[in-house]
Specification:
4 copies of one chain form a homotetramer.
Chain A lengths: L2 H31 L4 H27 L5 H9 L8 H22 L15 H21 L6 H16 L8 H7 L13 H22 L3 H5 L11
Helix pairs in contact in A: 1-2, 1-4, 1-7, 2-6, 3-4, 3-8, 4-7, 5-6, 5-8
Chain lengths: 235, 235, 235, 235
């Protein structure tokens, strides 16, 4: 592991930890304060997640690209934007970072560090939702590579803000976050038993979007190394 | 149909599908969770639609311009920003994409793929609202062409966010979306019988704004090919 | 009146009309749907106003500067950013545009075109609020001139979004809007009897901020001609 | 004190005053209007604070950097981005500006100029929350220095918007604001007795983030003088 890779590993780890802390923590706070109105709790959850994504992508993007999501890393590798040998490092950072994020959120709200979620999330409509959510996420990411602009952070934050509401699953769209959300029995949780199908749908959606964009935008591979934000692999 | 046109057709199709899925899906979710408080449901609907527009315009703008709206395409053709022979392709992509978006939203929420809306939306105040909503949308789009900046995505997203609340019709402002919304008997629906008057008001508003801007900004035609975002017709 | 001035007049007129329509219209819609929860109504009003400001400043800024506010025009003239002889034209456009915006909002919601507001808004705390609100608005506008960036539209939209909540008067901060809001007896209205004191407080706040910034930023006059967005006086 | 420093002092003073006025004032307004639904009050508080941050950083950033926070100034000095001899001036401006902001908010809402808060905020979960909140804030600020873009204002605004919801303490993350919030016995208040532990946690979090970033981004010191926005120390 080169020095550079260790820094990018750290960026993905801390970035995903904060992203999951934002998702899980704002879910706990929203449910606690909303007096039973789930729409208000989800609105708080949405605003917090979208705003956190903008901040985290702008902050960690110049270091590691701010993938913060194994599907993004995998899609990047499919387009040769990241070396395959680095993919396991990125994914490990995202999964372990995500788990730390859940633990942090639980502790900040005086809950046990880990509590396995009992929340059922399954069935074809939910799986379709995850497929569509992740398809859309990768379409947005690939589309924005043509802008060569920081605006991609706002596009991703905006997309997830919307997708929380327009998909029945509230758009996990991220296997690392899906795993992390099994460890908090709160608003944002998901039963471990339901996670594998979510992850499969997310992978399928992300890969489908990548193949679609390979046709749609022939210049894609040249831009893939700059996903989500341009960053230097070596410094 | 050239290869380039087929790609732009696909971008308009997928972009409009996601836009309609965001409008219809977030309406379903908002109504389901808001415990009868329509303002909260509409707030969720608003946030999702505005945020989706930012993401979709940034993602598809560099490919097709991200019109996602027959009025925008028509206004662009009036200013010679898009060839008239391409207009039917754009409009067809937008209408069929929009219908697919409704079907997707219905399926993601375990509803029948299509259910004809029974929601009455009519009368002079509603038609005036659609005229004003679309007039303002085109004024914003034409005005922002002078910026030569990605900021237009935020202007359009911001405008629609506002117009959901300041027009009595909640600002459809888009014939493709109007047609698509007839096919979901949910929060965002509109009775097919009421759609033609909405579409007529939208066309009138968009054309009026375009003539107004032709006087207001003599440099308009030079910028019209870059609506909503600069894109290359051939690649 | 030169051709150029007539165009800028039109931009200020239409821009202020849409801004007032957004303020008044979203107030009507918010009150109608929120089931008596004033915070939700004001949240809708806030989001609509802030988002409309972003869109309108980006759209009309390149033409007239998008002052949309007599205090901004006056402050610009104090710094020689706009010729004094043009000030009456700008202010007239803003006031008449604002009144048209109220009429439009009333008509879109099937209300009488004009209904004089009965809403009492007065007392020292309200006047202090208007002074502070307008002081802050001009501080934000003058501060952002140093950025030479479209970001000023987001700064102004963000500032007013915040000021709706942190001032007791919900931050009118604009004499043209204050006048226009006397003509709708709805959520956003103000009794004509209370308008003069609001307007005096707004003028005092805006002028104080301008004198403060003249000391704070010696380069200010050079930038004043580019308020709120750079635009060409002649084309 | 050079002329330049007096201007930067004034910018930090006024900027922090408005930031605190936004935090405290929107808390008062939110609580007053939300009919007992704390989530809605906090949503209003969140939106106002995040939007104010965007506006204030864009407006005051080019003058003083818009630290508006003693932790940011201290972290900047640790990286030699600001001279140590200027730190006391910055911190004094932030603390006195913050107190004025509370007084202003109280007066705008017809409350006594100062009322000592009785609100208990303490315990390990709250302290952990403040550590994490400030760690994240500094990570976001340091990360964004690499962008050399106004986007940092949106990153900071977005981060605090999220952190209000994902930390149990609603993310004060700022010793000057913590002190100021002891002087209003309203929604945003904190008992003076609880302030020192909050401030200690904030300092620890900010310093930890700075050491972390020193390793993560070896080019950090070169960028530190441009925190939060590039500004000239002498003019």
């Amino acid at each position: 592991m080169t020095s550079s890779l260790s820094r990018r590993f750290a960026a993905e780890f801390v970035g995903t930890a904060f992203l999951v802390a934002a998702v899980v923590g704002s879910g706990i706070m929203g449910e606690k304060l909303s007096g039973g109105n789930v729409a208000i709790a989800l609105l708080a959850n949405t605003v917090a997640t979208g705003a956190a994504l903008v901040a985290l992508i702008l902050a960690f993007g110049p270091i590691s690209g701010a993938h913060l999501n194994p599907v993004v890393t995998l899609a990047g590798a499919l387009e040769r934007g990241i070396a395959w040998r680095e993919v396991p490092h990125y994914v490990l950072a995202q999964i372990t970072g995500g788990i730390c994020g859940t633990v942090l959120a639980n502790l900040m709200f005086s809950l046990p560090a880990v509590s396995v979620s009992q929340r059922v999330r399954g069935g074809p409509a939910q799986w379709l939702s995850e497929f569509i959510a992740t398809f859309g996420l990768l379409v947005v990411i690939w589309g924005c590579t043509r802008l060569r602009s920081n605006a991609v952070a706002f596009a991703v934050g905006g997309y997830i803000t919307a997708a929380y509401w327009f998909t029945a699953s509230t758009s996990f769209a991220n296997p690392a976050i899906t795993i992390a959300r099994t460890l908090s029995d709160t608003f944002a949780g998901i039963r471990p038993h339901d996670a594998p199908a979510f992850i499969a749908a997310e992978l399928a959606g992300g890969i489908a979007a990548t193949f679609f964009f390979r046709w749609l935008s022939p210049r894609l591979p040249a831009a893939a190394k700059d996903v989500i934000l341009p960053h230097r692999a070596r410094e």
